[in-house]
Design brief:
3 domains, 421 residues, Globin-like, Arc Repressor Mutant, subunit A, Alpha-Beta Plaits
Length: 421
């Protein structure tokens, strides 16, 4: 809530003259002020619109001085004129830094306050206090309005960029992106792409912040901002709160760009992310996208920790999960345990704990001797000894196949060791 300054209803006088007169009676003031805030040319750090920068800056300065004059006369505080908001919006669209605009605005107000201070006498101390308060109120209105203009423009640009990136990504994924569309898209293009499928790590699925819709929208916004700020420029993408697809143009089929982007997106999102990457030539992007998301689904269902995965990292699991007689035969290995769920559950928990008897004991609230007894019973029923490396590998593979074959709880899928380990 805004409060009225002391003497707000009276015109301020300094050295016996209306304070507003010092601003309105000197036709050179706006030019002096322009030179002051521009440092001889432009606001520090700014890149003003070419060809009209000084004229437009002078226009903004005159508009600001009018607001200050009204305040010094004790008039009712007025809103920032639409023409000023529009001009600042133009600067935002043309790349002028908001920091430079705000810096110049503060410089201008200090200039005006110093001007009044040089005219003031010893009897004007109270008037100078009120002048500072009124100028501060006008400055607050201007900074708020200018920042709002920038935010509206940036949101509009971001939405347009997201739409363009989404359209290009959709076209590439559908195999409909022609050479003309690629060249005119404004996005970096190449003969090959790293197709990055993104998703929230399954281990965070019970996290309230992950499920909260408001937090999900924030997560999406932060990921889009990070994607747009990439060192190599933005990439075409289809993103949602739970992840999506990003297409990274590549000259060489390497994973470095995908790994770096996943790391930055994960920090921006604030939650652990899984990423799977498949490399493809442009006309192979549709098939690569399908493969990348198949791998992502597999990594999530396997409860893999956050990070980037390639086909080589999940090749064995991927092959095991393919429908067919091999998967059915593997899944059938666990049929003898279906009537004894405590054995199957103990096997899964024990394998997920890397066969650490103490951790499994704590997780299941049973004695370590009970674990050993159940492992022996599993060996008797299945013919595979979980304490033997060959039996261990076969049982792990059987659990993966069983989960896909029966649609069982994905938690029933411990991590498979590397072949031969």
């Amino acid at each position: 809530m805004r409060t009225s300054s002391p003497c707000a209803s009276r015109e301020l006088r300094i050295a016996g003259m209306p304070a507003a007169g010092y601003l309105r009676h000197d036709p050179r003031l706006s030019h002096q002020l322009l030179g002051h805030v521009a440092g001889g040319g432009e606001p520090r750090g700014a890149t003003m619109p070419c060809g009209a920068s000084r004229r437009e800056a002078a226009e903004v300065i005159r508009g600001c001085l009018e607001l200050v004059a009204v305040a010094l006369q004790g008039g009712t505080a007025v809103e920032v004129p639409d023409r000023l908001r529009a001009r600042i919006g133009d600067w935002a669209a043309e790349g002028v830094d908001l920091e430079a605009v705000q810096h110049a605005t503060h410089l201008g107000f200090r200039f005006v306050l110093d001007l009044l201070g040089r005219r003031a006498t010893g009897a004007d101390s109270r008037a100078m206090v009120v002048a500072g308060q009124r100028l501060a109120e006008v400055l607050d209105r201007l900074v708020t309005a200018f920042t709002g203009s920038y935010l509206r423009e940036l949101r509009a640009q971001g939405n347009a960029r997201d739409d363009a990136g989404g359209q290009l990504a959709s076209a590439l994924i559908a195999g409909d992106a022609g050479p003309a569309q690629l060249r005119g898209s404004g996005f970096a293009t190449a003969d090959a792409y790293a197709v990055l499928a993104l998703g929230v790590a399954t281990e965070t699925g019970d996290d309230a912040a992950v499920r909260d819709e408001h937090e999900a929208r924030r997560r999406l916004r932060r990921m889009r901002m990070e994607l747009a700020a990439g060192r190599g420029g933005p990439a075409p993408a289809l993103l949602g709160p739970e992840g999506g697809t990003v297409l990274l143009a590549e000259d060489r089929l390497e994973d470095a760009a995908a790994a770096d982007l996943l790391d930055r997106l994960q920090r921006a999102a604030g939650v652990p992310l899984l990423g799977t990457v498949v490399h493809a030539l442009t006309d192979e992007v549709p098939a690569a996208t399908k493969d990348a998301h198949t791998l992502l689904d597999l990594a999530q269902r396997l409860y893999r920790p956050a990070g980037l995965y390639r086909m080589a990292d999940l090749a064995v699991e991927y092959q095991i999960t393919r429908p067919g007689p091999g998967r059915r035969r593997l899944a059938a290995v666990l049929d003898p345990l279906r009537a004894q769920p405590e054995l199957l559950n103990t096997l899964v928990v024990h394998l997920r704990n890397d066969r650490n008897r103490q951790r499994t004991s704590r997780a299941l609230h049973i004695h370590t001797n009970t674990i050993d007894h159940r492992m022996r019973r599993i060996a008797q029923h299945t013919g595979l000894d979980p304490m033997n490396m060959d039996g261990l590998w076969y049982l792990r593979a059987a659990i993966v196949a069983h989960t896909y074959e029966t649609g069982a709880d994905p938690a029933l899928m411990p991590e498979l060791p590397a072949a031969g380990r």
